[in-house]
Design goal:
With 265 residues, this protein is an alpha+beta fold. Helix content is 41%, strand content 18%. It contains 7 helices and 12 strands. The longest helix has 38 residues. The two termini are 32 Å apart.
Length: 265
């Protein structure tokens, strides 16, 4: 009889070890918690990787379709009001995509209008300066300028522009150092080359825009969406915090579910 009891007791111990090992390994709780922490970190890293892949895919797709980089820019000033406003997200395409680039003068002759006036709005690097990383606050370069192309001039005296003499505030005729586009913000009183004829952000006088300085032309704009990249740092902080909170909340829910399952057993 005693041998039978020992046999039954031994069978129960074997069952507990095989079918419910977690009850026999209470001393390893710290290790299990470490596994959960590692799992939480892996999940967060996975989500960040997915975000990076999606953003990279969108950027590549925009480049292939638009033929320009950056393929999107944000309006940061009021120089193009009312046709473009602060926070507008502008889709940029190569100058020759969806039709040839037209200046204000050419647009007037051809009855071609874009953003409330004749001619195309171009995005260009002032004096060919490097733009750096194309996101506000993260770039150390000179941001591109987005203004309307008025006319294409050769080197020398420009003469008239929009029916007015192209002279500086001292009454001196503007002399272009080389060929290129004269540009003008729709909300500015004078063309760029007169507004910055002495110096533009340490680059010297703002010169006519050479074709190789042009990033692209504006295809269309989406209102307000550009406020996100304009405030990229606080937006990124909010997103990261939200991801941490979500992972913590998901982990707590998973723990509660596991606790309930154990209680039912």
């Amino acid at each position: 009889m005693e041998n039978i009891k020992k046999y039954i007791t031994g069978g129960k111990d074997l069952y507990r070890k095989v079918m419910a090992p977690e009850k026999e390994e209470k001393g390893d709780n710290s290790l299990l918690k470490g596994d959960k922490n590692r799992h939480w970190a892996v999940a967060l890293a996975r989500e960040l990787l997915i975000v990076a892949i999606v953003v990279g895919g969108i950027a590549l797709g925009l480049y292939l379709v638009c033929g320009a980089w950056p393929a999107i820019v944000t309006i940061e000033s009021e120089s193009m009001v009312p046709n473009m406003n602060i926070g507008d997200l502008v889709i940029v395409v190569a100058p020759d995509r969806f039709g040839a680039l037209q200046s204000w003068q050419e647009g007037k002759n051809n009855s071609y209008m874009k953003y409330g006036d004749y001619g195309d709005v171009i995005i260009y690097q002032p004096n060919g300066a490097s733009a750096g990383f194309p996101i506000p606050l993260l770039s150390r370069g000179v941001h591109p300028i987005i203004h309307r192309a008025i006319l294409y001039t050769g080197p020398g005296t420009v003469g008239e522009i929009k029916g007015k003499s192209f002279v500086d505030k001292n009454g001196q005729e503007y002399i272009a150092p080389h060929e290129g586009y004269i540009t003008w913000g729709d909300n500015n009183p004078v063309p760029d080359q007169l507004a910055w004829y002495t110096d533009y952000r340490g680059l010297g006088p703002l010169e006519p825009v050479k074709k190789e300085w042009i990033v692209g032309k504006a295809l269309f704009a989406i209102p307000l969406v550009g406020l996100i990249p304009l405030n990229i740092v606080p937006v990124a902080i909010i997103i990261i915090i939200a991801m941490f909170v979500w992972e913590w909340y998901s982990g707590r829910r998973e723990e509660q579910k596991n606790t309930l399952k154990k209680g039912k057993r």
